[in-house]
Design brief:
Layout lengths: L2 H16 L5 E3 L2 E3 L9 H20 L3 H14 L4 H13 L3 H14 L4 H13 L3 H12 L7 H14 L3 H14 L4 H13 L3 H12 L7 H13 L3 H14 L4 H7 L6
Antiparallel strand pairs: 1-2
Length: about 270
């Protein structure tokens, strides 16, 4: 038996006991073998986390295709990365790929069944697809998670979904709770005022919309138009006109400015 063949056979027999390493003979010279180093799991997770951050950045800029490319690489590197699957769900939803979005959200919750952020996002996805009862179940589960810091956000989107489902009393209750947690949210105040307007609670709606319209940074065409309609319903026509004129001056091309000019206060 040739020397190299004997050595290889001996290695095969003794590998488990002695950790024997074979050598390679090239041109009559022995060379050291190539050592394959197993990937470092922590390094893989860090690399995947960096991909998730990049995908989140692209997603926030509306670059959905690029974001999807990044998140796919993150998931490929670390298949059990729950936040990656959660973000993948958001990206697919933004691209209109509903089946893939739902699969991603479900996978994220399979990895971490207590992930309230994924529950919130999955609930909003369901709401946008008019699956209101399923959406509310996700929101309620999110709110039930200990130490959840996104309660104000979840209550707000739950209120929006309840409003879309025609359950205005429940929507108002959810939005009031959201506002109590975070009274600085202009979006919550506007949505609450809009629900109260639809319920005919004009005085209460005025309280919330006034707080927005007094701030140039928070007010916009929608808030000014809602404020104008509320004052019209309350019989305060000079203030209704004043808000409408401000609307027309600041946002002359908006649908709300056109509605004001056409006198469609009862829309």
């Amino acid at each position: 038996m040739r020397a190299w063949a004997w050595h290889a056979a001996a290695c095969a027999a003794l590998l488990s006991a002695a950790g024997c390493t074979s050598t390679v003979v090239r041109d009559g010279k022995e060379t050291a073998p190539e050592v394959k180093v197993a990937p470092d799991p922590q390094q893989i997770r860090r690399a995947a986390a960096t991909r998730v951050e990049l995908a989140s950045l692209y997603f926030s800029r509306g670059q959905f295709t690029t974001a999807l490319d990044e998140i796919k690489q993150a998931v490929q590197a670390d298949p059990n990365n729950g936040p990656a699957h959660n973000l993948m769900g958001l990206i697919y939803a933004a691209l209109g790929n509903n089946a893939q979005a739902e699969a991603a959200f479900r996978r994220a919750l399979q990895i971490n069944p207590a992930d309230a952020d994924t529950m919130n996002n999955y609930g909003w996805f369901l709401c946008q697809n008019q699956r209101y009862r399923e959406a509310e179940a996700q929101f309620q589960q999110a709110l039930g998670q200990p130490n959840y810091r996104g309660a104000a956000r979840t209550l707000r989107v739950m209120g929006i979904c309840q409003s879309r489902d025609g359950r205005l009393a429940e929507a108002e209750a959810s939005l009031v709770r959201s506002y109590q947690i975070d009274p600085t949210s202009g979006e919550t105040a506007f949505t609450l005022a809009e629900v109260q307007y639809r319920r005919g609670e004009y005085e209460r709606a005025r309280f919330y919309i006034d707080r927005i319209n007094k701030s140039a940074e928070q007010s916009n065409a929608q808030t000014l138009w809602l404020g104008s309609r509320i004052e019209y319903k309350l019989g305060n026509l000079p203030l209704a006109r004043s808000l409408g004129e401000q609307l027309a001056r600041r946002y002359p091309q908006s649908p709300e400015a056109l509605a004001f000019q056409q006198g469609r206060f009862n829309d």
